[in-house]
Amino acid sequence: MAIKPCLVLLLPLAALLLLAGSSLAAAQLEFGYYSKSCPNAEAIVRDEMEKIISAAPSLAGPLLRLHFHDCFVRGCDASVLLNSTGSNMAERDAKPNNSLRGFGSVDRVKTKLEAACPNTVSCADVLAIMARDAVVLAKGPSWPVPLGRRDGRVSSATEAADNLPPAFGDIPLLTKIFASNGLDLKDLVVLSGAHTLGTAHCPSYAGRLYNFSGAYSSDPTLDSEYADRLRTRCKSADDTAMLSEMDPGSYKTFDTSYYRHVAKRRGLFQSDAALLTDATTMEYVQRIATGKFDDVFFKDFGESMVKMGNVGVLTGAEGEIRKKCYIVN
Protein backbone atom coordinates (compact mmCIF):
# COMPACT_ATOMS: atom_id res chain seq x y z
CA MET A 1 0.00 0.00 0.00
CA ALA A 2 1.63 3.23 -1.13
CA ILE A 3 1.33 6.35 0.99
CA LYS A 4 -1.22 8.57 -0.74
CA PRO A 5 -2.41 11.02 1.93
CA CYS A 6 -5.20 13.45 1.33
CA LEU A 7 -4.11 17.08 1.39
CA VAL A 8 -0.52 16.13 2.13
CA LEU A 9 1.47 19.26 2.85
CA LEU A 10 5.23 18.85 2.69
CA LEU A 11 6.73 21.66 4.71
CA PRO A 12 9.32 23.83 2.97
CA LEU A 13 12.76 22.53 3.81
CA ALA A 14 14.08 26.03 4.47
CA ALA A 15 11.40 26.65 7.09
CA LEU A 16 12.15 23.37 8.81
CA LEU A 17 15.87 24.06 8.77
CA LEU A 18 15.14 27.27 10.67
CA LEU A 19 13.08 25.30 13.17
CA ALA A 20 15.74 22.64 13.56
CA GLY A 21 18.31 25.33 14.21
CA SER A 22 16.25 27.10 16.86
CA SER A 23 18.26 25.61 19.73
CA LEU A 24 21.67 24.10 20.29
CA ALA A 25 20.26 20.60 20.67
CA ALA A 26 18.08 21.01 17.61
CA ALA A 27 21.02 22.22 15.53
CA GLN A 28 22.74 18.89 16.19
CA LEU A 29 19.99 17.00 14.39
CA GLU A 30 20.21 16.74 10.62
CA PHE A 31 17.96 16.07 7.66
CA GLY A 32 19.36 13.03 5.84
CA TYR A 33 21.42 12.02 8.89
CA TYR A 34 21.54 8.38 7.76
CA SER A 35 22.18 9.13 4.08
CA LYS A 36 25.53 7.33 4.21
CA SER A 37 25.31 5.01 7.21
CA CYS A 38 21.82 3.64 6.45
CA PRO A 39 20.46 5.31 3.30
CA ASN A 40 17.26 3.24 3.24
CA ALA A 41 16.39 3.82 6.91
CA GLU A 42 13.27 5.90 6.34
CA ALA A 43 12.13 3.67 3.47
CA ILE A 44 12.44 0.61 5.72
CA VAL A 45 10.38 2.29 8.42
CA ARG A 46 7.77 3.42 5.89
CA ASP A 47 7.46 -0.05 4.37
CA GLU A 48 6.83 -1.64 7.77
CA MET A 49 4.48 1.16 8.80
CA GLU A 50 2.38 0.64 5.67
CA LYS A 51 1.97 -3.02 6.65
CA ILE A 52 1.26 -2.20 10.30
CA ILE A 53 -1.37 0.49 9.66
CA SER A 54 -2.94 -1.46 6.81
CA ALA A 55 -3.51 -4.37 9.21
CA ALA A 56 -4.49 -2.19 12.20
CA PRO A 57 -5.51 1.38 11.27
CA SER A 58 -6.34 2.14 14.90
CA LEU A 59 -2.61 1.96 15.75
CA ALA A 60 -1.89 5.32 14.08
CA GLY A 61 -2.95 7.24 17.19
CA PRO A 62 -1.03 5.10 19.69
CA LEU A 63 2.17 5.23 17.63
CA LEU A 64 1.95 9.02 17.43
CA ARG A 65 1.27 9.13 21.17
CA LEU A 66 4.41 7.10 21.95
CA HIS A 67 6.56 9.88 20.47
CA PHE A 68 4.68 12.52 22.48
CA HIS A 69 5.03 10.63 25.75
CA ASP A 70 8.69 10.00 25.07
CA CYS A 71 9.60 13.63 24.39
CA PHE A 72 7.91 15.10 27.47
CA VAL A 73 10.00 12.96 29.84
CA ARG A 74 13.79 13.34 29.67
CA GLY A 75 13.45 14.57 26.08
CA CYS A 76 13.13 12.50 22.91
CA ASP A 77 15.47 9.66 23.95
CA ALA A 78 13.24 6.56 23.64
CA SER A 79 13.21 6.18 27.44
CA VAL A 80 9.48 5.42 27.19
CA LEU A 81 10.34 2.14 25.45
CA LEU A 82 12.56 0.70 28.18
CA ASN A 83 11.22 -2.18 30.28
CA SER A 84 11.11 -1.97 34.05
CA THR A 85 13.69 -3.98 35.97
CA GLY A 86 13.71 -5.52 39.41
CA SER A 87 15.19 -2.33 40.84
CA ASN A 88 13.50 0.29 38.66
CA MET A 89 9.98 1.04 37.48
CA ALA A 90 10.27 2.50 33.98
CA GLU A 91 8.19 5.21 32.28
CA ARG A 92 6.03 2.75 30.39
CA ASP A 93 4.68 1.41 33.70
CA ALA A 94 3.77 4.84 35.09
CA LYS A 95 0.04 5.38 35.60
CA PRO A 96 -0.27 7.96 32.77
CA ASN A 97 1.33 5.45 30.41
CA ASN A 98 -0.75 2.40 31.33
CA SER A 99 -2.78 2.73 28.14
CA LEU A 100 0.17 3.15 25.76
CA ARG A 101 0.20 0.70 22.85
CA GLY A 102 2.39 -0.03 19.86
CA PHE A 103 5.54 -1.28 21.56
CA GLY A 104 5.48 -4.45 19.46
CA SER A 105 5.28 -2.41 16.28
CA VAL A 106 8.34 -0.40 17.31
CA ASP A 107 10.25 -3.63 18.00
CA ARG A 108 9.20 -4.94 14.60
CA VAL A 109 10.52 -1.85 12.81
CA LYS A 110 13.73 -1.82 14.85
CA THR A 111 14.38 -5.49 13.98
CA LYS A 112 14.16 -4.65 10.28
CA LEU A 113 16.56 -1.74 10.70
CA GLU A 114 19.05 -3.82 12.67
CA ALA A 115 19.05 -6.44 9.94
CA ALA A 116 19.83 -3.79 7.30
CA CYS A 117 22.09 -1.48 9.33
CA PRO A 118 23.29 -2.97 12.64
CA ASN A 119 23.90 -0.58 15.55
CA THR A 120 23.07 2.49 13.46
CA VAL A 121 19.53 3.83 13.78
CA SER A 122 18.44 4.88 17.27
CA CYS A 123 15.13 3.93 18.82
CA ALA A 124 14.49 7.63 19.45
CA ASP A 125 14.74 8.31 15.71
CA VAL A 126 12.54 5.29 15.00
CA LEU A 127 9.80 6.80 17.19
CA ALA A 128 10.07 10.16 15.40
CA ILE A 129 9.86 8.61 11.94
CA MET A 130 7.04 6.24 12.90
CA ALA A 131 5.04 9.14 14.36
CA ARG A 132 5.33 11.07 11.10
CA ASP A 133 4.41 8.04 9.00
CA ALA A 134 1.45 7.24 11.28
CA VAL A 135 0.05 10.69 10.54
CA VAL A 136 0.66 10.37 6.80
CA LEU A 137 -0.97 6.94 6.65
CA ALA A 138 -3.97 8.38 8.50
CA LYS A 139 -4.37 10.88 5.62
CA GLY A 140 -2.57 13.69 7.39
CA PRO A 141 0.41 15.89 6.47
CA SER A 142 4.01 14.88 5.91
CA TRP A 143 7.14 16.71 7.02
CA PRO A 144 10.89 16.06 6.85
CA VAL A 145 12.15 14.64 10.16
CA PRO A 146 15.58 15.82 11.34
CA LEU A 147 17.48 12.83 12.72
CA GLY A 148 20.52 11.97 14.78
CA ARG A 149 19.01 11.35 18.22
CA ARG A 150 20.69 8.90 20.57
CA ASP A 151 18.96 6.62 23.06
CA GLY A 152 18.89 7.30 26.78
CA ARG A 153 19.83 4.78 29.46
CA VAL A 154 17.49 6.00 32.21
CA SER A 155 13.72 5.60 32.48
CA SER A 156 11.69 6.59 35.53
CA ALA A 157 7.99 6.04 36.19
CA THR A 158 8.09 8.84 38.76
CA GLU A 159 9.43 11.30 36.20
CA ALA A 160 6.71 10.27 33.76
CA ALA A 161 3.99 10.83 36.36
CA ASP A 162 5.46 14.23 37.23
CA ASN A 163 6.14 15.58 33.74
CA LEU A 164 3.50 14.36 31.30
CA PRO A 165 0.72 16.84 30.47
CA PRO A 166 -2.36 15.49 32.29
CA ALA A 167 -5.76 15.04 30.68
CA PHE A 168 -7.23 17.20 33.47
CA GLY A 169 -4.77 20.05 32.89
CA ASP A 170 -5.89 23.67 32.64
CA ILE A 171 -4.15 26.30 30.51
CA PRO A 172 -1.76 27.58 33.23
CA LEU A 173 -0.56 24.07 34.04
CA LEU A 174 -0.31 22.95 30.42
CA THR A 175 1.48 26.16 29.44
CA LYS A 176 4.01 25.62 32.21
CA ILE A 177 4.70 22.03 31.14
CA PHE A 178 5.04 22.98 27.49
CA ALA A 179 7.25 25.98 28.27
CA SER A 180 9.59 23.76 30.30
CA ASN A 181 10.17 21.88 27.06
CA GLY A 182 10.67 24.96 24.90
CA LEU A 183 7.14 24.80 23.49
CA ASP A 184 4.74 27.73 23.43
CA LEU A 185 1.00 28.34 23.51
CA LYS A 186 0.64 27.83 19.77
CA ASP A 187 2.43 24.48 20.02
CA LEU A 188 -0.02 23.54 22.78
CA VAL A 189 -3.14 24.18 20.72
CA VAL A 190 -1.61 22.73 17.54
CA LEU A 191 -0.28 19.54 19.11
CA SER A 192 -3.59 19.05 20.91
CA GLY A 193 -4.87 18.40 17.39
CA ALA A 194 -3.21 14.99 17.63
CA HIS A 195 -6.33 14.03 19.57
CA THR A 196 -7.98 13.62 16.18
CA LEU A 197 -6.47 10.11 16.28
CA GLY A 198 -7.09 7.37 18.81
CA THR A 199 -9.24 6.36 21.74
CA ALA A 200 -9.17 6.88 25.49
CA HIS A 201 -10.08 4.76 28.49
CA CYS A 202 -12.89 5.87 30.77
CA PRO A 203 -10.78 6.89 33.81
CA SER A 204 -9.06 9.61 31.78
CA TYR A 205 -12.29 11.57 31.38
CA ALA A 206 -14.79 10.07 33.88
CA GLY A 207 -14.06 12.87 36.33
CA ARG A 208 -15.98 15.17 33.97
CA LEU A 209 -19.04 12.93 34.13
CA TYR A 210 -19.37 11.97 37.79
CA ASN A 211 -18.99 13.95 41.04
CA PHE A 212 -17.26 16.79 39.22
CA SER A 213 -17.53 19.27 42.09
CA GLY A 214 -19.71 20.24 45.02
CA ALA A 215 -21.78 22.47 42.77
CA TYR A 216 -21.95 20.26 39.67
CA SER A 217 -22.36 16.53 39.20
CA SER A 218 -20.71 16.82 35.78
CA ASP A 219 -18.38 19.34 34.13
CA PRO A 220 -20.52 22.35 33.09
CA THR A 221 -18.08 23.12 30.26
CA LEU A 222 -18.99 19.79 28.62
CA ASP A 223 -21.94 19.76 26.22
CA SER A 224 -24.78 18.07 28.13
CA GLU A 225 -25.92 15.86 25.27
CA TYR A 226 -22.36 14.68 24.69
CA ALA A 227 -21.97 14.04 28.41
CA ASP A 228 -25.12 11.88 28.38
CA ARG A 229 -23.74 9.92 25.44
CA LEU A 230 -20.42 9.39 27.18
CA ARG A 231 -22.16 8.11 30.32
CA THR A 232 -23.82 5.37 28.29
CA ARG A 233 -20.31 4.07 27.52
CA CYS A 234 -18.50 5.00 30.70
CA LYS A 235 -20.69 3.61 33.48
CA SER A 236 -18.38 4.66 36.31
CA ALA A 237 -15.00 6.21 36.99
CA ASP A 238 -13.68 2.71 37.68
CA ASP A 239 -14.53 1.35 34.23
CA THR A 240 -11.12 0.54 32.73
CA ALA A 241 -12.34 -1.60 29.83
CA MET A 242 -14.49 0.82 27.85
CA LEU A 243 -12.93 3.00 25.17
CA SER A 244 -14.24 6.23 23.65
CA GLU A 245 -13.10 7.84 20.42
CA MET A 246 -11.24 11.09 21.05
CA ASP A 247 -12.54 12.43 17.74
CA PRO A 248 -15.94 10.71 17.34
CA GLY A 249 -16.58 9.41 13.85
CA SER A 250 -13.07 10.23 12.65
CA TYR A 251 -10.65 8.67 15.12
CA LYS A 252 -8.66 6.79 12.46
CA THR A 253 -8.29 9.81 10.17
CA PHE A 254 -5.99 12.76 10.77
CA ASP A 255 -8.14 15.81 10.05
CA THR A 256 -9.52 18.98 11.64
CA SER A 257 -12.78 17.57 13.00
CA TYR A 258 -11.23 17.48 16.49
CA TYR A 259 -11.34 21.28 16.56
CA ARG A 260 -15.01 21.28 15.51
CA HIS A 261 -15.82 19.04 18.47
CA VAL A 262 -13.83 21.23 20.85
CA ALA A 263 -15.54 24.38 19.52
CA LYS A 264 -18.92 22.75 20.29
CA ARG A 265 -17.76 21.90 23.86
CA ARG A 266 -17.39 18.25 22.93
CA GLY A 267 -13.70 17.77 23.58
CA LEU A 268 -13.21 14.55 25.53
CA PHE A 269 -10.66 15.74 28.09
CA GLN A 270 -10.58 18.74 30.41
CA SER A 271 -7.37 19.71 28.62
CA ASP A 272 -9.38 19.90 25.39
CA ALA A 273 -12.04 22.08 26.99
CA ALA A 274 -9.29 24.29 28.44
CA LEU A 275 -8.42 25.45 24.93
CA LEU A 276 -11.60 27.55 25.01
CA THR A 277 -10.56 29.37 28.19
CA ASP A 278 -7.63 31.27 26.67
CA ALA A 279 -8.07 33.92 23.98
CA THR A 280 -5.14 32.73 21.86
CA THR A 281 -5.97 29.03 21.89
CA MET A 282 -9.70 29.67 21.51
CA GLU A 283 -9.11 31.81 18.42
CA TYR A 284 -7.04 29.04 16.86
CA VAL A 285 -9.64 26.38 17.68
CA GLN A 286 -12.45 28.43 16.20
CA ARG A 287 -10.48 29.29 13.07
CA ILE A 288 -9.49 25.71 12.29
CA ALA A 289 -13.00 24.50 13.20
CA THR A 290 -14.42 26.37 10.20
CA GLY A 291 -12.92 23.73 7.92
CA LYS A 292 -11.44 26.47 5.72
CA PHE A 293 -7.90 26.28 7.09
CA ASP A 294 -6.98 22.59 6.98
CA ASP A 295 -3.78 23.46 5.12
CA VAL A 296 -2.82 25.92 7.86
CA PHE A 297 -3.27 23.30 10.57
CA PHE A 298 -1.36 20.69 8.58
CA LYS A 299 1.57 23.08 8.13
CA ASP A 300 1.46 24.14 11.78
CA PHE A 301 1.30 20.54 12.98
CA GLY A 302 4.40 19.53 11.04
CA GLU A 303 6.31 22.53 12.36
CA SER A 304 5.30 21.85 15.97
CA MET A 305 6.18 18.16 15.61
CA VAL A 306 9.68 19.08 14.45
CA LYS A 307 9.98 21.47 17.38
CA MET A 308 8.76 18.86 19.88
CA GLY A 309 11.02 16.23 18.33
CA ASN A 310 14.02 18.42 19.20
CA VAL A 311 13.26 18.50 22.93
CA GLY A 312 16.15 17.35 25.12
CA VAL A 313 17.75 15.19 22.45
CA LEU A 314 20.96 13.28 23.06
CA THR A 315 23.44 13.58 20.19
CA GLY A 316 27.07 12.87 19.31
CA ALA A 317 28.62 10.58 21.93
CA GLU A 318 25.76 10.98 24.41
CA GLY A 319 23.60 7.96 25.22
CA GLU A 320 23.78 4.93 22.94
CA ILE A 321 22.23 3.23 19.95
CA ARG A 322 20.19 0.43 21.49
CA LYS A 323 20.18 -2.91 19.74
CA LYS A 324 16.74 -3.62 21.17
CA CYS A 325 14.50 -0.74 22.11
CA TYR A 326 13.20 -2.23 25.34
CA ILE A 327 16.58 -2.78 27.02
CA VAL A 328 19.83 -0.86 27.32
CA ASN A 329 22.89 -2.42 25.67
Give average pLDDT, whole number. Answer: 91
The biggest beta sheet reads: 2 strands, antiparallel
> CA-to-CA gap between the ends?
34 Å
Strand order of the largest sheet: 1-2
* Low-pLDDT runs: 1-27
The coarse overall form would be globular
| Tally of strands | 2
Approximate strand percentage = under 5%
Structural class: mainly alpha
Which value, in Å, is the CA radius of gyration? 19 Å
DSSP helix fraction: 40-55%
Tally of helical segments: 14
| SSE string | HHHHHHHHHEHEHHHH
Q: What report would you give on this structure?
A:
By secondary structure, the protein is mostly helical. It is 42% helix and 2% strand. It has 14 helices and two strands. Strands 1-2 form a two-stranded antiparallel sheet. The radius of gyration is 19 Å and the shape is globular. The two termini are 34 Å apart.
Q: How are the SSEs placed, and which strands pair?
A:
Layout: H1 13-20, H2 24-27, H3 41-55, H4 60-71, H5 103-116, H6 123-137, H7 157-163, H8 171-179, H9 185-191, E1 199-201, H10 224-233, E2 243-245, H11 257-263, H12 270-273, H13 279-289, H14 294-308
Antiparallel strand pairs: 1-2
Keywords, please?
329 residues; mainly alpha; two-stranded antiparallel sheet; 14 helices; 2 strands; 42% helix
Short description:
It contains 14 helices and 2 strands. It has 329 residues and is mainly alpha-helical.
